[in-house]
Recover the amino acids of this structure.
């Protein structure tokens, strides 16, 4: 008798459960995915969108590349950022994130 025969024999002897238990299990998996993966991602996207919409002159930012700077002016899709004294660049708003204060992170 091979291992494959043993597996098929075990499967043939297994009792058939209620089809509702399978639906309940799939429903539970979907709920777990929603609360642990989808919902936090949607919340993060909403916060980033609100940051970009409320971006103002003088805000301190971080670029997606890790550069820190200060907003000089804001347009519809772009913002002019001062990375160093006298060094200004125009960047897409999608490439900007708020500066995360390390002291505020420790309190959480």
């Amino acid at each position: 008798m091979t291992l494959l025969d043993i597996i098929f024999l075990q499967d043939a002897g297994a009792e058939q459960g209620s089809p509702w238990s399978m639906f309940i299990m799939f429903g539970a998996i979907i709920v777990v995915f929603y609360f642990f993966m989808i919902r936090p991602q949607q919340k993060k996207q909403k916060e980033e969108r609100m940051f970009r919409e409320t971006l103002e002159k003088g805000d301190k930012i971080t670029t997606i590349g890790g550069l820190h700077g200060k907003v000089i002016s804001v347009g519809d899709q772009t913002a002019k950022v001062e990375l160093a004294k006298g060094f200004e660049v125009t960047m897409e708003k999608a490439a900007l994130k708020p500066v995360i204060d390390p002291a505020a992170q420790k309190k959480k």
